[in-house]
Amino acid sequence: MSDIVEKTLTALPGLFLQNQSVGGPAGVKTSFSSRLGGLVRGITALTSKHEEEKLIQQELSNLKATVSAPTTTLKIMKECMVRLIYCEMLGYDASFGYIHAIKLAQQGNLLEKRVGYLAVSLFLHENHELLLLLVNTVVKDLQSTNLVEVCMALTIVSQIFPREMIPAVLPLIEDKLQHSKEIIRRKAVLALYKFHLIAPNQVQHIHIKFRKALCDRDVGVMAASLHIYFRMIKENSSGYKDLTGSFVTILKQVVGGKLPVDFNYHSVPAPWLQIQLLRILGLLGKDDQRTSELMYDVLDESLRRAELNHNVTYAILFECVHTVYSIYPKSELLEKAAKCIGKFVLSPKINLKYLGLKALTYVIQQDPTLALQHQMTIIECLDHPDPIIKRETLELLYRITNAQNITVIVQKMLEYLHQSKEEYIIVNLVGKIAELAEKYAPDNAWFIQTMNAVFSVGGDVMHPDIPNNFMRLLAEGFDDETEDQQLRLYAVQSYLTLLDVENVFYPQKFLQVMSWVSEVH
Amino acid sequence: MIQAILVFNNHGKPRLVRFYQRFPEEIQQQIVRETFHLVLKRDDNICNFLEGGSLIGGPDYKLIYRHYATLYFVFCVDSSESELGILDLIQVFVETLDKCFENVCELDLIFHMDKVHYILQEVVMGGMVLETNMNEIVAQIEAQNRLEKSEGGLSAAPARAVSAVKNINLPEIPRNINIGDLNIKVPNLSQFV
């Protein structure tokens, strides 16, 4: 293109803007679209929380004035709304803006409506009284001829919708299940799933429509219906056993590469879909030989096909193994699955090691020998630098503790406990140690020592059952009277030793236990 | 089911916060802070899965996170989701952001926070995974972007005119016309006498 033409055309916008006054639409647009930028730049320049608060409060009061002013156009409102979202994300209250978000969704053009809906989904919650005002807008948008508007309405319905108003939109959404556009059908399925979650009895009558979605010609719609089925099968698997054949067929087709190439992710056919199907099959085949028999072939096929090395193949393998162990056992499959777990545990990739340990934990009841096979690796994992791996190993060991290995295992657990700061970890682990100590303690001395350690670390956060059980144990004792006396004596002696140590604080509960035991015995 | 999706930077400043389960406002802020502290402690070569912390629901919930340059992407999920699957989903989400923003960086997330939300809405809807194919997600976003162009109004007219003319396929006018050697055969004229 000639240079001259190029130069003229680039100069045109400048000419236009020069001719417009500051109050004109273009001028306002540029000054407002940089307002969010200005705000963010202002915040990043500040160093203290106090200054940030000041700046944001000032911004919020400016915004409040702007949104309440009758002359504010919807366009300006849209820009303000984005800044309000930003402020709320940082934790500041902008509730004066909520009603305007709803108005924006109601009255705005498509782009303004989009921001309005986004703001509503972030600001409000299901039981908010303002939400009822949105229902009419949603109803209107669901009936719109503009597909983008319909999509927006379906999205907002699945994110946030008042339960009492479900009947108002239910028929409209049901209608969308037959829409010609695949994306609309898919979103409608997920919207109905949301309804099923918050008000299951209102969607009872459309379970037949879910079945139709399962057989939909578009894979996306079928995949969306799987979310619903997974949930319903989890709650009540016996009601859906007749669908096992369908799920097996679908999985066979996916694994066999019958889906369009679009669905491949790094040359793996629809991995997330495979994972979902495997989970569903795992639920259906549990404790049910006849149903499980329908799946053996496809599970074998999945195990074989997942030979590539991408992350997502491991995801499928893991699910396969999980399913194989959940359903009625078949020895060849179990053997292959066990080999898989072995590969996971021995893998240098940390994520896979973690999953291998998790699988072992799951499998341990059915196949204790598997853990023995990988003993060395498990012991190495105890000293792994990653605390999450350590924890998972301790979880595993907790399940294979017996009278022989208890001292070693509990020692490792106590070591981990001392390093831990998070409350929920302490609570969990303390409970486990107490349980194991009670069951398998080799002798009194060890038992008391261990319980002392448990009380001093667990102290105030642990479950009250633990000290109660302990005290009851000392009170009731075992069958042998001398044995009991020795136990109590040892306990009291150990407390005296501990209390002698200076500059150590013991948790309240521990002191209570000590004083109770010493008094009574 | 996905309970929450959080994106924050290396200093804990939130860049995107979306909860799919209801939490009161102060708890939401606490969760963001707590998650940041949990994730900050992790080195870069250990596993990407974490327990959910005490605020976000208990032992059934996990935090699955990925660290990209200055940003942490954290998905809080329950046990019905596959850990490795979610890890790949985060990758898909980030790749989609990269495609929509062209070499996405933290600034894009800050200045176009609403656009990031619209992209996320096409990936996860109501806590359930809606679409995992990057091209499909981008197609949905482009459909919405076309609205933007058609709604530009008067101020966008010059820019639209410019881009329209630029996109016309005008034939290239050669600057130097090179005729090349012509071979004209001159007939042999007999001599004049």
From TrEMBL, chain A:
Keyword Cell inner membrane assigned to the entry: answer is: no
Keywords, A to Z, come to: Golgi apparatus, Membrane, Protein transport, Transport
Q: Any one Gene Ontology biological process term?
A: vesicle-mediated transport
Magnesium among the record's keywords?
no
Q: What is its main location?
A: membrane
Q: Name one GO cellular component term.
A: AP-4 adaptor complex
Q: Where are the transmembrane segments?
A: none
Q: Which residues form a coiled coil?
A: none
Location comes to:
Endomembrane system
Q: Which residues form the Clathrin/coatomer adaptor adaptin-like N-terminal domain?
A: 52-474
Q: Which InterPro entries match?
A: Adaptor_Complx_Large_Subunit (IPR050840), AP4_complex_esu (IPR017109), ARM-like (IPR011989), ARM-type_fold (IPR016024), Clathrin/coatomer_adapt-like_N (IPR002553)
The protein's topology relative to the membrane is: Peripheral membrane protein
Q: Which SUPFAM superfamilies match?
A: ARM repeat (SSF48371)
Q: How does it assemble?
A: Adaptor protein complex 4 (AP-4) is a heterotetramer composed of two large adaptins, a medium adaptin and a small adaptin.
The UniProt family comment states: Belongs to the adaptor complexes large subunit family.
- Biological function: Component of the adaptor protein complex 4 (AP-4). Adaptor protein complexes are vesicle coat components involved both in vesicle formation and cargo selection. They control the vesicular transport of proteins in different trafficking pathways. AP-4 forms a non clathrin-associated coat on vesicles departing the trans-Golgi network (TGN) and may be involved in the targeting of proteins from the trans-Golgi network (TGN) to the endosomal-lysosomal system.
PANTHER family linked to this entry: ADAPTIN, ALPHA/GAMMA/EPSILON
User: What name does UniProt use for this protein?
Assistant: AP-4 complex subunit epsilon
Please name the source species. Answer: Leptonychotes weddellii (Weddell seal)
Organism lineage string: Eukaryota, Metazoa, Chordata, Craniata, Vertebrata
Q: Which gene encodes it?
A: LOC102750364
UniProtKB/TrEMBL annotation, chain B:
Protein transport recorded as keyword: yes
Per the record, the GO terms for biological process are: Golgi to vacuole transport; intracellular protein transport
Question: Could you tell me which InterPro entries the record lists for this protein?
Answer: AP_complex_ssu, AP_mu_sigma_su, APS3, Clathrin_sm-chain_CS, Longin-like_dom_sf
Gene Ontology cellular-component terms for this entry are: AP-3 adaptor complex; cytoplasmic vesicle membrane; Golgi apparatus
Q: Where do the TM regions start and end?
A: none
UniProt feature coiled coil, ranges: none
Homology family? Belongs to the adaptor complexes small subunit family.
Q: What is this protein called?
A: AP-3 complex subunit sigma-2
What is the gene name?
A: LOC102739327
